[in-house]
Amino acid sequence: MVSAVPAIRCRQIVACDIPAVVKLLTRGFPNRNREFWLHALDQLTRREPPRDLPKYGYLLETNGEVIGAILMICSAMRVGDTLTPRCNLSSWYVELAYRAYASLLVSQALRHKEVTYINVSAAPHTWPIIEAQGFTRYTGGLFISLPALKGFSRGEKVQVSEANERAPAGVDPFEQEVLRQHAEHGCISLGCVTSERAYPFVFRPRLVKGFVPCAQLIYCRDIADFARFAGPLGRHLARRGRPIVIVDANGPIPGLVGIFRRGSKPKYFKGPQQPRLGDLAYTEYAIMGV
Q: Phi and psi (nearest 5°) for 68?
């Protein structure tokens, strides 16, 4: 007797799928518990994606059972004077018996040609797969910095202030929302104010190796801005118990004290706009706290 081929369907995840998706991802990623995934999906529930893009991502199902899922954090990011769609692909898992259908899940997730897709936490064994899917590596490593060790430059007066509730004057409306929304997601949103203008910065509190406190640079206008204001920003973060700042980089960053680690946490993109260094806004690092 020939076994019946199972009917496999791929569709967008909706709110009522959350319990089943959480159960699947808890099985698929044993280093993350059920509470982590409940929190992650709750964070996505609170967000509104750009038009025609999924709120949570996509799933595979057969006979009413969820057998695969890929989460997507979709946002509109500014490139020049326009807003362009960007999606962070995250937490891709398909049950072993159905791995032959994994490509169906990915092709559905990548079908929007106007979108720039990013993968910021790919495990080393998946790098060849991601590259075969057309993704390009845009960062080659991490710069582990001690910004508080940098002195003041050019004698300029700089004021660093928390931007959790109100962004400092001089930050435009788009960046005001970046600061506010990331503060709501547990990030440290700061405004660095000089006599000429205000500069926005977002950092994510993290623990390296599970116990070393640090901050990860999530958003700034330009890496050169972080290097310029490293001293006052670093001292502010050090007072909050975060003396180390991790920055995506392709080599040592001029003006910063620290160590570059090549090949550590490379990041990939596919689509019309290569992400710039210093912009991990609305990614799983910022939203889910991975």
A: -165, 155
The whole model's pTM is what? 0.90
Q: How confident is the model at residue 80 (pLDDT cuts 50, 70, 90)?
A: confident
In the Cβ-directed half-sphere of 271, how many Cα atoms lie within 13 Å? Answer: 22
Residue 280 vs residues 21, 167, 247, 276: alpha-carbon distances, Å:
25, 19, 10, 9
DSSP 54-106: -SSEEEEEETTEEEEEEEEEEEEEEETTEEEEEEEEEEEEE-GGGGGGHHHHH
Q: Are 226 and 258 in contact (CB under 8 A)?
A: no
Q: How far is CA 249 from CA 18, 120, 125, in A?
A: 35, 13, 21
Token code pair at residue 109: 């997730």
267 CB-contact burial (10 Å; exposed 0-12 / middle 13-18 / buried 19+): buried
**pLDDT tens digits, one per residue of 255-283:** 999 999 998 789 999 999 999 999 999 99
Distance (Å) of CA 115 to CA 74, 108, 168: 9, 13, 31
CA of 191: how far to CAs of 41, 154, 262, 270, in Å? 29, 19, 30, 31
Evaluated on CA atoms 29, 30, 34, 36, the torsion sign reads negative
Closest CA to 284 of 163, 140, 118: 118
- Local structure of 272: helix, strand or coil: coil
Q: How does pLDDT run across 148-206, given as a tens digit for each residue?
A: 998 765 567 888 888 765 666 667 889 999 999 999 999 999 999 888 888 999 999 99
Alpha-carbon distance 283 to 86, whole Å?
10
Alpha carbons 277 and 268: distance in angstroms, whole number: 12
- The helix (H) or strand (E) run that includes residue 12 is strand 9-12
- List CB contacts of 73: < 8 A, sequence separation 6 or more: 44, 47, 87, 88, 90, 282, 283, 284, 287, 288
